[in-house]
Amino acid sequence: MIVLGSTGSIGVNALNIAKRFNIDIEVLVAGENIDLLNSQIELFSPKRVVIKNKEDISKINHDNVLWGEEGIIEALRESESSLVVNALVGFLGLRPTLEAIGLDKKVALANKESLVVAGSFIDTSKIVPIDSEHFGLWYLLQDREIDRMIITASGGAFRDTPLELIANMTPKEALNHPNWKMGKKITIDSSTMTNKLFELLEARWLFGEGEYDAIIETKSIIHALIDFKDGSTTAHIANADMKLPISYAILDRVDERIVEHVDLVKLGSLEFKEIKEDRYPIWSIKDDILKRPFMGVVVNAANEVAVNKFLENRISFSDISKITLNAYEKFSDITLRDIKDIFEIDKEVRRFCE
Q1: Residue 5, Ramachandran bin (φ over 0: left; ψ between -120 and 50: alpha; else beta)
Q2: CATH label of the domain that carries residue 63
Q3: Domain carrying residue 85
Q4: What are phi and psi of 335, to 5 degrees?
Q5: Which of 88-92, 289-293, 307-311 is predicted least confidently?
Q6: Do residues 46 and 62 touch, judged by C-beta distance below 8 A?
Q7: First-to-last CA distance in the chain?
Q8: What is the pTM of this model?
Q9: What is the H or E stretch that residue 27 is in?
Q10: Looking at the structure, do residues 113 and 207 belong to the same domain, yes or no?
Q11: Helix (H, G, I), strand (E, B), or coil: what is residue 216?
């Protein structure tokens, strides 16, 4: 298989599964963590390697190294693998997703931005989601009439912080996630609830039109729930370990234990909370964007700019949602005719937010 984003948390877990089940790695794509990439090259002996920066090529212990987005596309086109794990972060992951699908490859997708910004132009029959929430929904699906699909959120770093203190929280504080160890971008998105908004949009594209919602479950043990028409609700319960959804995405079927069972007695209790707009202002557009999911391209572009500004200490934490909501209002009348429009609107929104 091909692993895009091999040195991130999803990529590392995907390679752990590959090692466990003796899956060959044809291509590794990574960013700037050269030491970890070189150790992965030594362990998996890929045919090609792609890195972010051209100037780092000499540091890579491999004789077939490409670089940049064009390098990723070239590696996909020249590969034989039928499976691509796309764990790239941000809008950068869209073109590889489109290219892989165009090459008739299956995409194990952790790059949520692909569906968020271009879901209407993506053949989701070629997509297998890696997110624990979408995996949980898939796991629960039965041949019964559904009322509502629900995913859960941890609440992020500030779920219990007094409201009056949140606006001035620092990047270091925002990156202190209570349940998960993730990259900077997704951890910040978790603290603003933008990540969960994106996951609802993903669910909309993956499972079709319907009722979708999210609630906070503070221990990240329940990942998804389905309300059925008959009044019953089922929940997917599993320990917080991404190797489980990754295993299914890669292998299709899993017949051995990947994670330990949840000890309900030791767990003791679960706590659920409503996602409220005073703590998570981005949630104010949740219902509207599910009716107009094409607006995901605006939210994603604005959010990427805002998160970068926050991490560089150029804006306050509360400004992240303000910038996104401002862009959402400014570009409320967009029309998407083809995939080219996605890239054009992305540029326009970024210019506006900068």
Answers
A1: left
A2: 3.40.50.720
A3: 2-130
A4: -130, 130
A5: 88-92
A6: yes
A7: 38
A8: 0.92
A9: strand 27-29
A10: no
A11: strand
